[in-house]
Amino acid sequence: MTPLLQVTDLTKHFPIRSRAFRSAGGVIKAVDGVSFSVDAGQTLGLVGESGCGKSTTGRLLMRLLTPTSGSIQLDGREIAELRRSDLQEYRRRVQMVFQNPSSSLNPRQSVGSAIAAPLLAQRVTPAGGVKAKVRDLMDRVGLRPDHYNRFPHEFSGGQKQRVGIARALALDPQLIICDEPVSALDVSVQAQVINLLEDIQRDTGVAYLFIAHDLSVVQHFADRIAVMYLGKIMEYGDTERVFGAPEHPYTRALLSAVPQPDPAADRSGRIRLSGDLPSPADPPRGCVFRSRCPVHPRLDPQRRQLCTDSVPSGSIACHHTDVAAEALATTPR
Ligand SMILES: Nc1ncnc2c1ncn2[C@@H]1O[C@H](COP(=O)(O)OP(=O)(O)OP(=O)(O)O)[C@@H](O)[C@H]1O
Ligand code: SF4
Ligand SMILES: [Mg+2]
C-alpha cells in the first residue's frame, strides 16, 4: 500500500551568510538525507534535540522551504519540485500547527476570522457556509460559540492552541504537521491538547507528523518514531519497538533520560552524552553522532575506524548495534 506521505533522501542545506564561510562555499546541513513515511490516519513522532532539523523538515514538507534535493510524495504525487504557483491544492491537503500559539495568531484578528482564513484564502465555501463551518470547528476543538468574536489576547495558551488546531482543520486536510504544539503549554494543558488531537484523528482519519524534543510526549501517541540528530535520522521504527528495544546509542541515551514513573522499571541509569552538539555547518565525518557517542571510544580500532570512514544508513544508523548494548551496559554513566 502506498503511504500517504513518502519522504526520501530529503536535504536542505542553507548557504552560510558570513563572508569567510561563504567564500569557502560553506553550508548548514539542517536536513541531510532524511527518509520516512506516514500512513493515512497514523502518527509519526519526529524527535531530537534543539537544532537537529525538526522544524526545517516540517517547513520543507509544508513547502514553505524548497528542498535542496530529495523527494516528497503525497499519495504518490511528487511535491518537492512543484512551483509555488502549483502548490495551492497541496496546501489544502497538508496543514501545520505551530509551537507558539501566541505568535502564530494575528492579535488584531478575531478567533472566528482566524479559523475562517484558510477557507477564504483557498476560496472554499463549505455546504452550510463559512460561518457555520467555523462554528462547527470551534465546537470540535472545545471552544464556545461566544468565543467567535473574541481576540487572541483574551485566551489562555491552551485555548489559543485550540484555535490553531481548528484553523488547521478548516480545509479537512489529510496530514497535519504539528511542530512542538504543546511544548509552550503548562503540563496539565499539554495532556488536554494531545487528547484533543487523538480524538480528532479517531474521528477524521487525519495523519500527523508530530514534532517534539521530548520523547515522553510522543510515547503514548505516535505509531512510529523517527529520532533525528544533526540533520539525519538515527533510528526509525514502530513506537513499541523503539521504546521497548532501542538500538541506536543516541536513542538509548535519550530514553535513559525519560523519567520512569516506577523506579523499579528504571533502566540501568542515565547515559550522559559528553560534549556539545556539533555545528551543522561542520558535522563529524562518517557517523555524525561519533563525537558524542558513548560506544565509539570503547570499540576496537578497526570498528572505530568504520565510524569515521563511512556514513551508517538504514533504519538504525549505527555500524555497531551488535556491540552497542554490551558496551553501554559497562560504560560509566
Ligand atoms: N533559514 C535558515 N538559515 C540558516 N540556517 C537555518 C535556517 N533555519 C534553520 N537553520 C539552522 O538549521 C538547523 C536546524 O534548525 P531547526 O530549526 O530545523 O531545528 P529544530 O530541531 O527545529 O530545533 P528546535 O528544537 O530548537 O526548534 C539549526 O542549526 C538552525 O540554526
Ligand atoms: S556508528 Fe559508531 S559512532 Fe556512530 S553511533 Fe554507531 S558506534 Fe557510535
Ligand atoms: Mg523547531
Describe what you observe in this structure.
A hairpin with a 2-residue loop joins β9 and β10 (232-238). By secondary structure, this protein is α/β, with parallel strands linked by helices. The radius of gyration is 21 Å and the shape is globular. The chain has twelve helices and ten strands. The protein has helices at residues 19-23, 54-61, 88-93, 111-121, 130-140, 157-169, 187-204, 215-219, 239-244, 249-256, 301-309, 321-329; strands at 5-15, 27-38, 43-47, 69-74, 77-78, 94-97, 175-179, 207-212, 224-229, 232-238. It folds into two domains: 5-229, P-loop containing nucleotide triphosphate hydrolases (Rossmann fold); 262-329, no CATH class. The site of magnesium ion has 2 residues, from α2. Residues 54-55 line the site of magnesium ion (MG).
The CATH homologous superfamily of the largest domain is termed P-loop containing nucleotide triphosphate hydrolases
> Strand order of the main beta sheet, please?
6-7-8-3-9-10
Radius of gyration: 21 Å
Low-pLDDT stretches are none
Instruction: Tell me the domain tally.
Output: 2
**CATH architecture title of the largest domain:** 3-Layer(aba) Sandwich
Strand segment count: 10
| Beta-strand proportion | 15-25%
Quickly name the level 1 CATH class of the largest domain.
Alpha Beta
**If you average the pLDDT, what whole number results?**
91
Largest sheet: 6 strands, mixed
Structural class: alpha/beta
CATH topology of the largest domain: Rossmann fold
Percent helix: 25-40%
Basic shape:
globular
- Bound ligand species: adenosine-5'-triphosphate, iron/sulfur cluster, magnesium ion
Number of helices: 12
Distance between the termini: 44 Å
Pfam family, one: oligo_HPY
Organism: Streptomyces yanii
Family: Belongs to the ABC transporter superfamily.
Keywords: ATP-binding, Nucleotide-binding, Transport
